[in-house]
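[09:14] KT: can someone run the structure on this one? pasting the chain below
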Amino acid sequence: MQTNLRAFARARDWQQFHSTKNLVMALTGEVGELNALLQWVEADNIQDWMTVPANREAARDEIADVLAYLLQLADGLGIDVEEAFNAKLGKNGAKYPIEKAKGVSTKYNDLG
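[09:31] RB: done, structure tokens below
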């Protein structure tokens, strides 16, 4: 994916605009757009909302935009996304052991 994004940006000479600050701002904007799609949809109705093709496509597009900017940001910072994810999952596993965290939403420092 990152190779495709690099080629896409390079073909359009967009790398000049992809500073860390700009990518973080773009990522935040796209998360905001995703948030705006669901802002007034009740939690119990999201699955029904997603059955409408236009809604599903809009959510899919915004999720893709979020992912694209996140991948470009990680690429620019030299972060291997898969390695970072797996390392963080390991840290979270240590902070939230199954025997203490299963079925509860308590923050790790309050699990006891």
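[09:33] KT: thanks! The two ends are 41 Å apart (CA to CA).
[09:34] RB: yep, looked fine to me
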